[in-house]
Automatic annotation (TrEMBL):
Domain VOC: 7-141
Keywords: Dioxygenase, Oxidoreductase
Protein name (record): Dioxygenase
Keyword Oxidoreductase annotated: yes
Database matches in InterPro entries: Glyas_Bleomycin-R_OHBP_Dase, Glyas_Fos-R_dOase_dom, GlyoxalaseI/FosfomycinResist, VOC_core
One Pfam family cited in the UniProt record for this chain: Glyoxalase
Length: 143
């Protein structure tokens, strides 16, 4: 595709309850928890979940906003989800994710077809929300 060495490292999601969010992402979405025990023990400010070997979602509590001083106005982003985050999976994992979300009673969009993304046109995709209102797209590519 491209020889760009830049990679997506992490996405910070604002959540009301990081433990409940971690439970959703591990049980319903199938991601691996990172630093959850340390968060519960009060040793780290937020837990994360691993998307793949290179990418995690940080689950930042709304109360963490007052620490967001890296840029003027950064704290104002608390509670404002991004438009959506897209997860690309193999076709069998796509099916498994959809089935798992259905078992958890997560509302799902209809299956979309031929939406454009980083790897071209994906034959199928669908959308869902996490318990904090963050919108996710799941898709798979043929190869």
């Amino acid at each position: 595709m491209t020889k760009n060495s830049m990679r997506l490292d992490h996405v910070v999601l604002w959540v009301a309850d990081p433990v409940a969010a971690a439970r959703f992402y591990t049980e319903a979405v199938g991601l691996e928890p990172v630093r959850l025990t340390e968060f519960v023990e009060g040793k780290v400010p937020f837990p994360s979940v691993r998307v793949n070997e290179e990418t995690i979602f940080d689950l930042a509590p709304h109360t963490f906003a007052d620490r967001m001083r890296m840029l003027p106005g950064a704290a104002d982003s608390a509670g404002h989800p991004v438009n959506h985050v897209c997860l690309s999976l193999p076709a069998d994992a796509f099916e498994a994710l959809r089935a798992r979300l259905e078992r958890y009673g997560v509302p799902l969009s209809d299956i979309g077809h031929d939406s454009f993304g980083a790897r071209g046109s994906a034959p199928r995709s669908f959308y869902f929300r996490d318990p904090d209102g963050n919108v996710f797209e799941a898709r798979h590519y043929d190869a």
